[in-house]
Amino acid sequence: MTGVPLGTFIGQHFGWRETFLAVSILGVIALMSSLILVPNNIPGRVSAGLRAQLQVLTHPRLLIIYAITALGYGGVFTAFTFLAPMMQDLAGFRPGGR
Known about the structure:
single chain; mainly alpha; 2 domains; 4 helices; 70% helix
């Protein structure tokens, strides 16, 4: 929820390169946290092979759910793309909030 507005704020005040730098830093922090905090071997669990994981794509109901999810997220991010121009053109907001 805060990613797009925060990225826009950073981009407008510091530049687009700093936005990518901030996202990269957050990605490295997430990777390091995962490597440190997630256990390597969870007892009682057997890892499923690639073939077993891909078998879920043979179930029509799951494919419908995946399609609905993809379209829903796609719609949200499409709305994010047009949010700033609409606020500037229709509502009279100025870039940078000044």
